Structure formats: structure tokens, C-alpha cells
């Protein structure tokens, strides 16, 4: 009788452990890293070009997850409002344990966004509203999806060089289940000079059935190219 109880207990522990492992998304327990570049290149009083590149990894040193390349044309309504239309290409390794040489999904994305900025005390607020049309290629199948995103960002200057940056961004699917994901971010930043800065931060990326922790290293470079374009016009 005692042996029977022991066997049943061992089976229960084994089943519970198996269910726990199957419920956890592969790579969820790993700390990944995103290496990012962002640029806003002013070309006229009202127009600028957005440039962006992101390399995302499931783990800190390696294990490729995603490549994101994005560009767009910004229209500056005034110093606190800007509208953008653009395009992005995304290549994704959809599996943490995907063998080398296996197929990666690809996405062509069109987006439109509107940014509003305001200041309260020393806090700099930025509200970003974005719509995305996503054309997904999974190899054997293809799909078109639409979603909306809202991000509220707060920046607190600590000195002429150092600052803190925080944001929360909600992704809303416009088909199927409403909730897509939520990104909560905090970082310490420093200005290298008037047109470039670096941010070192942490991102909590929450999906319906998984939460990923990511370190982020971001480089921001915003040169004013209006002088170059004026010289070309003169010549």
C-alpha cells in the first residue's frame, strides 16, 4: 500500500512538472538584449527623415530573434506635434530553439503615426499614436494584420548630460483577440553632444501567455541636414 502511494505521488509530480514545462514559453526565462539605432534627420523646416535599425536577441550575447529596419517621412506641424508615414521590414526567428538554417518569418509593414509633446515642471511628456498594416510571410502561409499602438513616454533631465527615460506602450490588435502586448521601459541616458545620445535600459515585454525581460542599448543620432540641402539648391 505504501509503495502504491509512493508511485502515485511520483506520477503526480512528474505530470505537474511536465505541464509546467510545456506551459512556459521557450526563452522566457532568459534575459535577452536589443541593440538599437534611431535617427531624425532634418531636411527642411517642416520635413525630416526617420531612420531606425534594431537587432534583437533571445539571450544577452547571441541567439538571434529579430531584425527590424524602419524609415519614414516626418512632417513637423510645430515644435510639439509631428505626423509620420513610413515603412518597416522585419525578419524574425520565431523559435528560441530553431535549428540553424530553418526558415525565418518576414514582414513588410506600413505605418502612420502622430506624436504630441508637452512639458509639466521638468517632465517632458510624449504621446505617440501609431497604426500599422502588417503583411506577414510565414513561408507556407501568408497573412495580413492590422493593429494600433499607444505609447506614453516621460523624460526627466537630471543635468545637462544625464536624464531618465520611461515609457509604457500598449499594442491593440484590430482583429482576433484585442490585446497584443505591453512594453514597460525604464532607462538612464546621457547626451554625447547636441545631436547624439545613448540610453541603457530595461524592457518588460508582456504578451498574453509570456513575459520577456530585455536589456536595451539605444543610440540616438539627430543631425540637421538643412545646410546640405540648401547648398545643393544654390549650386
TrEMBL record:
Name used for this protein in its record: DUF2490 domain-containing protein
Organism phylogeny: Bacteria, Pseudomonadati, Bacteroidota, Flavobacteriia, Flavobacteriales
Keywords: Signal
Signal peptide: 1-23
A Pfam family reported for this protein in Swiss-Prot or TrEMBL: DUF2490
Amino acid at each position: 500500500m505504501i509503495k502504491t502511494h509512493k508511485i502515485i505521488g511520483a506520477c503526480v509530480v512528474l505530470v505537474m512538472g511536465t505541464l509546467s514545462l510545456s506551459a512556459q514559453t521557450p526563452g522566457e526565462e532568459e534575459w535577452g538584449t536589443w541593440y538599437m539605432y534611431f535617427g531624425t534627420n532634418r531636411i527642411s523646416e517642416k520635413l525630416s527623415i526617420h531612420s531606425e535599425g534594431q537587432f534583437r536577441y533571445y539571450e544577452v550575447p547571441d541567439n538571434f530573434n529579430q531584425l527590424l529596419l524602419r524609415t519614414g517621412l516626418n512632417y513637423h506641424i510645430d515644435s510639439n506635434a509631428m505626423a509620420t508615414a513610413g515603412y518597416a521590414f522585419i525578419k524574425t526567428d520565431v523559435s528560441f530553439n530553431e535549428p540553424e538554417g530553418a526558415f525565418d518569418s518576414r514582414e513588410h509593414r506600413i505605418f502612420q503615426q502622430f506624436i504630441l509633446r508637452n512639458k509639466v515642471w521638468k517632465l517632458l511628456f510624449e504621446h505617440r499614436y501609431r497604426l500599422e498594416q502588417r503583411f506577414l510571410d510565414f513561408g507556407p502561409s501568408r497573412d495580413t494584420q492590422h493593429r494600433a499602438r499607444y505609447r506614453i513616454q516621460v523624460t526627466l533631465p537630471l543635468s545637462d548630460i544625464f536624464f531618465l527615460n520611461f515609457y509604457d506602450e500598449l499594442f491593440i490588435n484590430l482583429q482576433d483577440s484585442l490585446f497584443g502586448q505591453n512594453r514597460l521601459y525604464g532607462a538612464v541616458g546621457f547626451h554625447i553632444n547636441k545631436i547624439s545620445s545613448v540610453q541603457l535600459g530595461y524592457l518588460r515585454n508582456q504578451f498574453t501567455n509570456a513575459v520577456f525581460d530585455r536589456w536595451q542599448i539605444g543610440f540616438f543620432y539627430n543631425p540637421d541636414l538643412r545646410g546640405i540641402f540648401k547648398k545643393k539648391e544654390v549650386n
